[in-house]
Amino acid sequence: MKELGRVITAMVTPMDEKGEVDYKQAQKLALALLASGSEGLVVVGTTGESPTLRHEEEKKLFAAVKEAVGSKGSVIAGTGSNNTAEALEFTKDAEKIGVDACLLVVPYYNKPTQEGLYLHFKSIAGSTKLPCILYNVPSRTVTNLAAETTVRLSQVPNIIGIKEASGNMEQITKIIKEARPGFLVWSGNDSDTLPMLSLGAYGVISVASHLVGKQINEMIYSHVKGNAAKAAEIHRKLLPIFTGLFIVSNPIPVKYALNQVGFKVGKPRLPLNEPDEKTAAAIMDIVRKTTIDLKV
Which residue of 100, 116, 153, 205 pairs with 112 in a disulfide if CB–CB is 3.0 to 4.6 A? Predict the structure, then answer.
């Protein structure tokens, strides 16, 4: 399996002035992110506005980013759905395109049981040779993927890890302790990354790495190399941007910040909208106090 990376950016989807996907700008952003600390990219995740992208747009985006990135980093396709059959077919499509892995979100709205979640993810993984990463984000899906279910799913050979955004450190500890050897846990919340690393997590699937990727990379590898003091220092310095990019629903703040620092990614699609004046000012107050790693 290709090394997917400890620092993975959940990439925004650039839009043009008409609100259409800007594939060329997506390629430029992908390369800029890899040049500023990221080792991999999630394309069409939550931050990539998956709910409002059409499947044809998503497949074109997977292909465009993979073409641009080549072997410079990993490309992980967000192919999850609350429709098992749809997620299964979409994952097969992504595999044909040539992505390196897929990200499978917990089904939202229909509130499955834990057994239903187990069967859902096992079915999708069984349909593909791609490495599969589970994505637990109960603040958006309502349903929590229980630690016991994650541990069961870790026995499926090509389910290789989880993006854990529950913020539940007891649950995350149980997964790290009881999952099969080699099962990887990425933080799904920037502010949880260092605490989770201290428990044995592998890395982060990040939003803030759009702006501070090199610094996140340094924080993680400082921890890995045993320099806990340096990692903690960087975490403290970055905490305002970690939290500031979530003062309203992601990806509203990060898209606004990217546009303001000069990397044009357009507006979010409705029902998401640009921040109001007060929120915009709060975002930029934090951004101006932060060293930006992304080259514009």
Answer: 116
